[in-house]
């Protein structure tokens, strides 16, 4: 990552975001609070605190920038957009799909996030409404009727305030998410072997 971050700074920002979320819960759970607002109010600051360059301060071209917002993805002959695509050393590493807090992170959304990862040939998909964060290991073609397949970690904003290390995408080294997560995946029994990495599927489905 291009932006230096410290664990102390991240801890302070995470606590601020969690406190703000709790105070605004009624508003955030209302139908009128949109996904785009969630990303601006909570997810963008969250990832920025981890050191990710969301504003492209490096001035990289779109296909090389560290965080690509609404990254175009070919699925089933159509064009969809993943909310976030994260890169390290200009290589795609994982995607994140955001949903507004008024909605449950149900099976269809899990399938959507995993399908973005599968079609972008990355191993990891995140699904979050900030209140809850789900991390999926994507080692094979996802199916709608198998929402828990690949589910590696689930955490909520309430259990991160006491200890930010509980956050599913945090590490004391803080120069993650890709580096630390990759190291964790190498030790995770459910992680797919390197040869299982999917090829680029493009408009396959």
Structural features, described:
With 205 residues, the protein is α+β, with helices and mostly antiparallel strands. The protein has one domain (7-196): tt1808, chain A (Alpha-Beta Complex). 29% of the residues lie in helices and 22% in strands. It contains five helices and six strands; from the N terminus they run H-H-H-E-E-E-H-E-E-E-H. It has helices at residues 7-23, 25-28, 35-49, 107-119, 178-187, and strands at 67-75, 78-88, 91-98, 124-128, 132-137, 151-156. It has a six-stranded mixed sheet with strand order 1-2-3-4-5-6, with helices on both faces. The longest helix has 17 residues, at 7-23. The chain is globular and about 40 Å long. The chain starts with 6 loop residues before the first helix and ends in an 18-residue tail after the last helix. Mean pLDDT is 80; it is low at 160-205.
Question: What descriptive keywords fit this protein?
Answer:
alpha+beta, 22% strand, tt1808, chain A, 205 residues, disordered C terminus, 29% helix, 5 helices
CATH topology: tt1808, chain A
Number of DSSP helical runs: 5
Portion of residues within helices: 25-40%
Beta content comes to 15-25%
Supply Rg.
16 Å
How are the SSEs placed, and which strands pair?
Elements: H1 7-23, H2 25-28, H3 35-49, E1 67-75, E2 78-88, E3 91-98, H4 107-119, E4 124-128, E5 132-137, E6 151-156, H5 178-187
Helix pairs in contact: 1-3
Structure described in brief:
The chain is α+β, with helices and mostly antiparallel strands and 205 residues long. It has helices at residues 7-23, 25-28, 35-49, 107-119, 178-187, and strands spanning 67-75, 78-88, 91-98, 124-128, 132-137, 151-156.
């Amino acid at each position: 990552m291009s932006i230096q971050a410290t664990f102390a700074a991240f801890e302070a920002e995470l606590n601020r975001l969690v406190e703000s979320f709790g105070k605004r819960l009624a508003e955030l759970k209302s139908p009128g609070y949109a996904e785009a607002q969630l990303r601006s109010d909570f997810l963008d600051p969250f990832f920025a605190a981890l050191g990710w360059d969301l504003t492209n301060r490096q001035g990289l071209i779109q296909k090389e920038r560290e965080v690509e917002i609404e990254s175009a993805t070919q699925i089933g002959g159509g064009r969809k957009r993943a909310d976030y695509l994260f890169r390290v050393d200009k290589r795609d590493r994982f995607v994140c799909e955001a949903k507004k807090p008024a909605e449950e992170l149900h099976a269809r959304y899990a399938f959507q996030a995993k399908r973005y990862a599968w079609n972008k040939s990355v191993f990891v998909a995140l699904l979050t409404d900030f209140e809850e964060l789900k991390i999926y290991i994507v080692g094979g073609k996802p199916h709608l009727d198998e929402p828990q397949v690949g589910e590696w970690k689930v955490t909520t904003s309430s259990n991160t305030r006491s200890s930010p290390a509980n956050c599913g995408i945090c590490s004391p080294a803080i120069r993650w998410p890709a580096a630390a997560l990759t190291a964790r995946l190498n030790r995770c029994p459910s992680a797919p072997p390197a040869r299982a990495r999917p090829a680029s599927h493009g408009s396959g489905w």
